[in-house]
Amino acid sequence: MRYNWGTDRLAAFSDGVFAIAITLLILEIDVPDSSFDNLWKGILDQWPSYLAYVTSFLTIGATWLHHHLVFRQIAWANSALLRLNILLLMLVSFLPFPTKLMAKALTQTDTAERVAVFFYGVVLLTISATMALIWHQAVASDQLKPEVTATEITTINRLTRPFVALNVLVISSAFVVPKAAVFGYLLIAAMALLRRHHPQQSEADPH
Amino acid sequence: MRYNWGTDRLAAFSDGVFAIAITLLILEIDVPDSSFDNLWKGILDQWPSYLAYVTSFLTIGATWLHHHLVFRQIAWANSALLRLNILLLMLVSFLPFPTKLMAKALTQTDTAERVAVFFYGVVLLTISATMALIWHQAVASDQLKPEVTATEITTINRLTRPFVALNVLVISSAFVVPKAAVFGYLLIAAMALLRRHHPQQSEADPH
Amino acid sequence: MRYNWGTDRLAAFSDGVFAIAITLLILEIDVPDSSFDNLWKGILDQWPSYLAYVTSFLTIGATWLHHHLVFRQIAWANSALLRLNILLLMLVSFLPFPTKLMAKALTQTDTAERVAVFFYGVVLLTISATMALIWHQAVASDQLKPEVTATEITTINRLTRPFVALNVLVISSAFVVPKAAVFGYLLIAAMALLRRHHPQQSEADPH
Amino acid sequence: MRYNWGTDRLAAFSDGVFAIAITLLILEIDVPDSSFDNLWKGILDQWPSYLAYVTSFLTIGATWLHHHLVFRQIAWANSALLRLNILLLMLVSFLPFPTKLMAKALTQTDTAERVAVFFYGVVLLTISATMALIWHQAVASDQLKPEVTATEITTINRLTRPFVALNVLVISSAFVVPKAAVFGYLLIAAMALLRRHHPQQSEADPH
Q1: In a designed cystine with B145, which of A59, B75, C133, C162 is the match (CB 3.0 to 4.6 A)?
Q2: Mean pLDDT of all residues belonging to chain C
């Protein structure tokens, strides 16, 4: 049991990083002092910040959900998994920076907007690719719990892989229709949260 | 047991977000360098920041308490509950922004003050409504633990629902008497913390 | 068991707040851009920030240690204890603000220095008084675990009460010798950490 | 069992501090508003921030990994271990400050660069030395779990001690080739993460 390390404490440490990264996002939102003369307008003018906030919040939330789903199937973690997990956490912790950049750029010049939306998308893509890689690695190295069924493996494949492709699709539109691409990222995150994650829900009542 | 997920790790992740959001509130309080010539006055002049800090701290504290109370009764979490919980966490994480806005606006023009106090109240309202919805959803979808009694359901109904109505009441006064409304929010949070949460306290000693 | 709530999750939530407050302290330390021409001097000039950082870090660390010691003896938490605990967490979360104030004031005018050191001390005093009150309340309301001995109660009395008196002593010197008072706070925190917390260490090997 | 404290909650509290310190690092990265006219260049110009971010992230990640490895072997914590652990957490929490300093200095004068890289290295050195000391102390005071083998002790010795020497080596190059020294720190952190941590991997399958 002492050697079977990683899945419990690894998950707890990862949860901590997810929870902190998701909560730090708010620190970037502010209304400039000059807008207090017309505060309604000042609050509404921050819409790019809210859009970026909600998109990043849902993305980290969905990543946390998938992380859980994946790690619940894993019996033990080898070094490759540990390193991939560190990479994932580094990318998730990094997300507040492109989020802030995109929020600022959406009220700036067209070029800045395109660059910021593209840069943000690339970070999202690497996050979803790393998550898919973690699951692939766990399956390929036979680190799953013995009771995990082929159906469950397929379910999680369907939850992790398509998001890599979807992100590529939306990123490629970032230079043409940057604002639409942001809503594309939001939609991807919402889909990742709204998809059915529980194979058991089609089964009998778990009571 | 593997499918019965969500309540343990969901609660742990939520606890993390609550703990971080409540602790980040302090970052917004500062005394301007120009006030160091008369630091007593400088410290006292920040009273709107302290008022906003205590109100938001007690609000998040009370929300955490209710969250616990609710999730202790829940046997398993379905997708709807997961999504409502993500929404709740997003709103709680968002609270530092209207808190900062309100603290700044309380020393600004009358109009800014009214707008900021109203905006803050709307966020409080959505938090209390989401919490009430989570409990409603859990009861309606029969996700409670089998040993939860009707008395306990009623107790938690009484802890979650009235705060929605109270928030509506105080928000509606924000445009008339904004400063009084802030104390109203503080009072609501204090009440939420001070109400009796333990049906067992009227019973025999739990030892 | 379901009613015996609070001690586990309360401790976990409190741990989260302690861990975050202690880690946020570093955000206040910075070297002004103008000091990069002579960075050694620029780094050394920040000594008030380091002093304030270490003092607050050790204070929160010692408070966490005492919190643990106290909550390990408690079987169940009533509402009074819950509220006192929320108050303690609010004060600990507040500490980064007077810490920043004191760090800034130590390089400012004499008056600002005295006020900031006094204000900081008052927050420390309320923290230690709240901690002593939590322990007093738990003992008085008979919420301790049955196996807690009178010796253990005395040990914890000795760990919590004297710090209230020590803080009063040091605060009263803040207006006369403010810089010495800061070292007094540091000494109190170091003592709180270095005192013997383990009655069992005088007993047989715990293996 | 009540006396056997510290290893569980100590590890949980330490995990919290590690997770927060590692996530706060991102707050220091920003693109100045003036760079939004040419945002690609603005993003690329921040390379010292990314380099410092990745180095500190991997360093804290590796320290967390070693901390876990060490504390999994420890049966109970005495006061010396508690205090060394507080010191370790204080140093890890302090790391965002020299990280920010180094990121800024890498685009400044030569002298500032050397000083900042040296200062950063000294903090890394004290972190690795404190970690080695914690392990040394645990072994010397016979606080290990009875089932820990001599092989495991040797494995952990090899994981903690060399990093002290490696840090001394790289620091001593900071005044001659500061930029190379930064990559040296990065290499050390990567090595600490990539080394084999699992003596069991050479044994039979842990299933």
Answers
A1: B75
A2: 87
Chain B interface includes C91 (CB < 8 A): no
**Across the interface, which of D24, D79, D90 has its CB nearest the CB of C196?**
D79
The owner of tokens 């400012």 is C108
A142: left (phi over 0), alpha (psi -120 to 50) or beta: left
Is any Cβ of chain C less than 8 angstroms from the Cβ of B64?
Answer: yes
Q: Tell me if chain D has a CB within 8 Å of the CB of A2.
A: yes
CB-CB: which of A79, A93, A116 is closest to D26?
A93
Say if B152 is an interface residue toward chain C (CB within 8 Å): no
Query: Quick one: DSSP state of residue B108?
Result: S
CATH 2.60.40 applies to domain A7-199: no
CA angle C138, C141, C144 (to 5 degrees): 50
DSSP conformation class of B129:
H
Q: Which of D66, D61, D36, D57 is nearest to D99 (CA)?
A: D57
Q: Does D3 touch chain A (CB under 8 A)?
A: no
Identify which of B19, B29, B65 has the shortest CB distance to residue C17: B19
Across the range D30-35, mean pLDDT stands at 87
CATH 1.10.150 for the B7-196 domain, yes or no: no
Q: Would you say the C-alpha torsion D75, D76, D80, D84 has a positive or negative sign?
A: positive
Is B23–C21 a contact, with Cβ atoms under 8 angstroms apart?
Answer: yes
pLDDT, one tens digit per residue, over A170-203 is 999 998 999 999 999 999 999 888 876 554 443 3
- CA torsion sign for B46, B49, B53, B55 is positive
Cα Rg, chain D, nearest whole Å: 19
The length of chain A is 207
The answer to whether C105 contacts B54, with C-beta atoms less than 8 Å apart, is no
Q: Give residue B197's pLDDT.
A: 57
C195 CB contacts (<8 Å, ≥6 apart)? Answer: C159
**Spatial distance between the Cα atoms of C80 and C91, rounded to a whole number of angstroms:** 17
Separation CA C152–CA C133 (nearest Å): 17
- Domain boundaries along the sequence of chain A: 7-199
Reported as a single tens digit per residue, the pLDDT across D42-57 is 999 999 999 999 999 9
- Three-state SS at C107: coil
CA of A146: which chain D residue's CA is closest?
D207
Q: Do A79 and D19 touch (CB under 8 A)?
A: no
Measured in degrees and rounded to the nearest 5, phi and psi for residue A146 equal: -60, -30
Note whether C27 and C161 are within 8 A (CB): no
Residue A178 near residue A48, CB atoms below 8 Å = no
The span from the CA of B181 to the CA of D157, in Å, is 61
Residues on chain C touching D82 (C-beta within 8 angstroms): 65, 193, 197
In chain A, the percentage of residues whose pLDDT exceeds 90 is 55
Q: What is the ipTM of this complex?
A: 0.88
φ, ψ (nearest 5 deg) of residue A74: -95, 130
B197 interface with C at CB cutoff 8 Å: yes
Can you give the length of chain D in residues? Answer: 207
CATH of domain D7-198: 1.20.1410
| Residue D8 burial (C-beta neighbours within 10 Å; 0-12, 13-18, 19+) | exposed
